[in-house]
Amino acid sequence: MRISKILTALAAGTMLTATTMAAQAEGKLNIYNWAGYTPPELVEKFEKETGIDVTIDTYDSNETLLAKLKAGGGGYDIIVTAHTFIEVNAKEGLIQKFNPKDLPNYKYLDKKFVDPSWDPESQYSLPYQWGTTSFAVDTAVYDKPIDSFETLFNPPAELAGKVGMLKGGSDLIAMAELYLGVPLCSEDPAEMQKVLDLLLAQKQSVKVYAGAAALRDQMVSGEIAMTSNYSGQVQRARAEKKTVQYVYPKEGVIAWVDALAIPADAKNLENARKFADFLLAPENAGALSNHAGYANGSAGSEEFMKPELIEAPELHVPEGIKTEPMKTCSPAANELEAQIMTQLMQ
Amino acid sequence: MTAARISPDGGWLRGAGLYPALGVVGFFLLVPLALILVYSFLGKGDYGGVVWSFSTAAYEKILFVKKLDGSKMLNWAFFTVLFRSVMLALATTVLCLLIAFPAAFFISRQRAFVKGVLLLLIMFPFWSNLLVRTSSWIILLRDHGLVNKALMWLGLTDAPLALLYTDGAVLIGLVYVYIPFMILPVFTSVERLDKRLIEAAFDLYASRMQTLRRVILPLTMPGMVAGSILVFIPSLGAFITPDLLGGGRKLMLGSLIQLQFTTARDWPHGAAISIVLLVLVVTTLVLAARRGTSAKAR
Amino acid sequence: MTHAQSLAMNAAIPQSGSKRRARTADQSLNRFAGFGTITVLLFAFLYLPIVILVVFSFNASNTISVWEGFTFKWYWIAAQNTDLHKAALNTLLIGGVATVVSVLLAIPAALVLSGRAETGSGGKYLLILSLPLMLPEIMIAIATLILFTTIGLNLGIGNVMIAHTVFCLPFALMPILARLRGMDHRLSEAAYDLYASRWQCFRLVVLPLLAPGIVTGAMLAFIVSFDNFIITLMVSGAGGTTLPLYIYGLVKTQMTPELNAISTGVLLLSLALLSTAFVLTKGRILGVSGMSE
């Protein structure tokens, strides 16, 4: 009984602090980002420079973030989400225009991210970090030269049964589309049938469909010998197992950007803009890359980056290899993708 | 003296004892449930959410599916997934029962102190995180994992067995996750079992099996029923454990519903599956309760 | 039963002395051979993964499952991680409040329900109170979030506490109800006969008998809240990250032995809490001490 009294008191206390916390919005900044992608030192530096109190919450997928915002959840001032979701969130009125072009440090932004296809007038977003998606092979298991997704989708005997694939529908399908020469986000059922057939055939050789970090772990431990994965995760895998090699297939690689945006109901708009500006500074962008292991969007940030990142083959797409940016699928294309996933995993 | 007065069970509370709980569940769950019901009859929004127009498409989609070429066919995917999930949940419940009953019985026979310690030891692993706990099973079950090493060392197998990413691995994981929800309710029932009844059974020359079947099991039934409900229903909708230990190769009911709110962005369909699932579960429970009482009456 | 067996059993039961007879009954119960073995196997099953979890928290490698040598560095990293500490605090607060409130709601509800037939109104209400079990979590999560935003309820982690209380309720209720269902009604009858007031009867007769059910219910409710992911993910607002949310994020992007260090840390913390409670209550924490003895 005594314990319950203490706990009730605690509950009352928390409720109180929770309400007062909501009341004093000034001087605060609430960030919603992937876990481990916000370097603590950088946050401390920002807090010191501006006196703004930063709170970081972490989430697990673009899709659940969209569902959460759509259902009215949140209370965040900054979110970081895949560039394909910027268009969706903007269309649904879930994020707001914050005129990044007026930010003092906008001049540092790499030209290829000015007016990008997913945000044509650069009103809603700024790149936070970017990378590519392809696949990696353990050369200790299979050392013949590889130049095509053919090896991933139709694995040789040495690799069959030792394949790990990213489980998200869009990653899985985009890669198959790239291999088959089908346009990303195709709405043509006949083309998508080919994608499904390919994935079904490949499933025989696939050991596991999992998340990026789990696949990295299994690649290093030798449970799997080939995996589709993001550039940064492969770089980390190689740091621990020298025989892991990132493949740049002749069909090209998928490119993606994790972009920073401001939710429509953000309470601390000015603080959010300050943070966006802070991240554009090459020095801070470099620190961001050092922490998460991906490239950033600020020109001139290389001089602040760790040498192993600058030299990492995973972060530098060779000349002549196409980088195909992920696309925002139309509702019709999205429905086809969902059907493929259901039939693949049924 | 009224019957209500005699009853120890708060008969004097009349219905009032129910009000707070009913109020909380009524507002914070029945209102959302009504919302789910409404959503299941609406159109799907382009990027999630709903369009406010009446539609039964969400339910039709459960039964029939448009193939990629546009023709309609019976939705085998749904029934396959439903069957797989029900079988797995059933197996989980039965396994949990088979482990929990003897264990609870054994523990209840110990000295008070030992009993307390053992029960705490059963709860203790569940204070770690579900995901990390399940990941440990991956380390145990993988090809070069401890279980395979032990099997090979014992000479039971020459090459590592494929243990991970199988239905068996999922079953182990589910039992691991839900076993305390069986043990504890069964224990509370076994614990308050009147020993004199068992003694009487033995006095009357009942065998151990007979005593177990005719005396102990009927008396501990409430705990087993409670435990089975707490294990069966959540494991029916489980998706994290099947996903991790099944290697994401097969959809479960839980992951199918999850898919509707994420990749598929079809909230009405997700709501419709939820409603169908609810109806199935409630019907089963009501039928089971009826059969239970009529069996008692006989 | 064979003749030999029945003879043996007959011989085992002495003819007089109730105290001795009780003990013998206990012994004959203990003859349910294999029950002890199953219990031992159960503990092996429960603790094997935990041992793995703890061992790999000392792994020097960045990859959990590849052993590279012994280190304390992950504990050091976790100890400095303020986001993590906040998440842990949130988890304990939410779990504590949801557990206490759901148990306080469950006790009177169970008292009323146990007096009603399962097929009648008792069954109906029990079904309603068990609804949180029967709806898929993601569905509850989204519908609850929509409800909260529609009525403008914005209590920070208070929202999460409310949502957790609702789905913890059946877990708290079931064991209490199971305990009550088998209770001897004559005990409280006797209490009333001795002029006990309703409160006295509840406090001195019913509650002590109910205690194991209550503690069990509370424990189940707590671990359900402690591990909840989807509902928390949806309902929580800024500053509301809990341990499961944080750990999910780490699993998705990092997957280093820090995860194991965090879990081991939480285990140690709960071990400390549980043993303190155990010592303070002289082993009565589960309410089993002195029962049926």
Automatic annotation (TrEMBL), chain A:
Q: Name one GO cellular component term.
A: periplasmic space
Which positions carry the signal peptide feature in this UniProt record?
Answer: 1-25
Q: Name one GO biological process term.
A: polyamine transport
Q: Which residues cross the membrane?
A: none
Establish whether keyword Signal is in the entry: yes
Q: What broad class describes the main subcellular location of this protein?
A: periplasm
Residues in coiled coil = none
The family database entries (SUPFAM superfamilies) matched by this protein are listed as: Periplasmic binding protein-like II
Intracellular or extracellular location(s)? Periplasm
What keywords tag this UniProt record?
Answer: Periplasm, Signal, Transport
Molecular function as annotated in GO: polyamine binding
Q: Which domain of life is it from?
A: Bacteria
Family annotation (Gene3D superfamilies)? Periplasmic binding protein-like II
User: Which family does the entry's similarity section mention?
Assistant: Belongs to the bacterial solute-binding protein PotD/PotF family.
- Describe its function: Required for the activity of the bacterial periplasmic transport system of putrescine.
Name of the featured protein: Putrescine-binding periplasmic protein
From TrEMBL, chain B:
* GO annotations of cellular component type: plasma membrane
Keyword Lyase carried by entry: no
State the name under which the record lists this protein: ABC transporter permease
Instruction: Establish whether keyword Transport is in the entry.
Output: yes
GO BP: any one term: transmembrane transport
Keyword annotations for this protein, in alphabetical order, are: Cell membrane, Membrane, Transmembrane, Transmembrane helix, Transport
ABC transmembrane type-1 domain location: 82-288
Taxonomy of the source species: Bacteria, Pseudomonadati, Pseudomonadota, Alphaproteobacteria, Hyphomicrobiales
Give TM regions: 21-42, 76-105, 117-141, 161-187, 215-240, 271-289
Q: Principal place where this protein is found?
A: membrane
One protein family per Pfam = BPD_transp_1
